[in-house]
Fold this protein.
Amino acid sequence: MNNLIFSFNIWKDLVNMLSYDFMLHAFEAGTIVAIVAGVIGYFVVVRRSSFAAHALSHVGFTGAAGSVLLGLNPLSGLLTFTIGGGIFMAMLGRRAENRDVQIGNVLAFLLGLGVLFISLYAGYATEAYSLLFGEILGISFHSVIITLIAGLLILIATGIIFRPLLFTSLDEDVAEAKGISIQEINIAFMILLAAAVSISVQVVGVLLIFALLVTPAAIAQQIARRPMQGIAISVLISLLATWLGLFVSFYLPYPVSFFIVSIVFIIYLSVRLFQRLN
Amino acid sequence: MENTIIAKNLSVEYNNHTIWQNADFVIEKGKFIGILGPNGAGKTTLFRLLLGLIKPASGKLQVLGKEPQRGNPRIGYVPQRHHVDSDMAIEALEIVRIGLSGNKWGMSFSPEKERKIALESLRIVGAEELAHRPLGKLSGGELQRVFLAEALVAKPDLLLLDEPLANLDIRRETNLIQLINEVVKSQGVTALLIAHNINPLLPVLDSILYVAEGKIATGTPHEIFTSESLTKLYGTPVEVLRDSQGRVAVLGVDEAPYHHE
């Protein structure tokens, strides 16, 4: 147990930490998720789609619960349900203003279904807990690979639609007049968001999704004058919070997601306070 | 001289309900046109037709020598914006830049070149000093200049401005009108501007499209703003009064066209 004591030699601590497979996998998955969440989160914030992010994570809960019940990998259920839900949401409302209520309607029903699935499953409590609050320390190598592939696909796709996505996010009417299909971009973005939510759930869980997918980007959006700067800051904050959270949680008997959420929130408060004072 | 817009017997519907019909007008290149009329008469609908976002119910419409098509790069558009969030930290230059290349796929490989072009566009509208200011911190008049620069950045031949004067005080309104007029004259652009108040525009407009009662009347401001022509258009007695400086007031219409929203 000697190895689990913090030594003030950060490098040595880190090497020691990563000699455990579960920590290595956690760092690998956490890093991928932090980058993806930072990038997608920026668009979530500028598009004001944070409710959609929240909703998709709940829809994902139902999918994951269903997969668990059928003995499948929860991530596959998450991806299927969030992407399906995302496309459905995008089809429902074209303009940002009229999405919230429609999303909420579907959400309540699906969440209820999730509760049913998970109650039918024998390992009810543990599985529900890890879905709701994340369980990055239990992530398998197999899941790391799926996360890596999903993460790369999300980043590449975001790069391809980058400018139209930004245009519709910042200036929808002009973008439409310039020949961009608002509906198509919206569907594409909801699919990307769904995939990002799915891989983020592994780290922070359904209920704490805001911590990775919204708060870092919200901080960045307050500071950055240019979109690329905003994305960079957002990624940096979620990376910092994830790494630091994992590091601290190695030594303390509390959940990683608690630390990640707290670090992000402290940064958020500091930036707001700093802006107030200026 | 090339005509920018030709409308023949043009009608438009929305949900099987006729907005206006049988409109005939020609807009010549380089003219500054005011579009006036009560709310809901179909002024913005005309813009949506020109932008190719909706199709005419019947009749013919030509824009810059072709049928309207979505995404025509020769048209610059300033929509009516209801508000910009005060926490919007993106700088003005970036919104102008997005008007230049925002509709292209992929990431930009020449951001600095694009930023230079965007800055030049801000210079044309006299808003160079706003380049690095956050959008959320700009006043209504400053925002309109930035949006004008965004519309101009791709060097359009036709400029569609939807109520750029709304919510501006008289001084800023006059400044913006002068600026648009200078841009129209110096860049050889044709401009269509939707407005509620004709008076500040009287010195600069070449002609007017007056949209009301399902019809569009065209003519010079002096032809349109007479008791006879507005009475004919509305089908009820309308009186147009003029003061010593040529300013007009319209009486007898539910919604006076000179009021501010």
Q: What stands out?
A: Chain A touches chain B at residues 46, 159-164, 166-167, 170-171, 173-180, 221-228, 230 (CB under 8 Å).
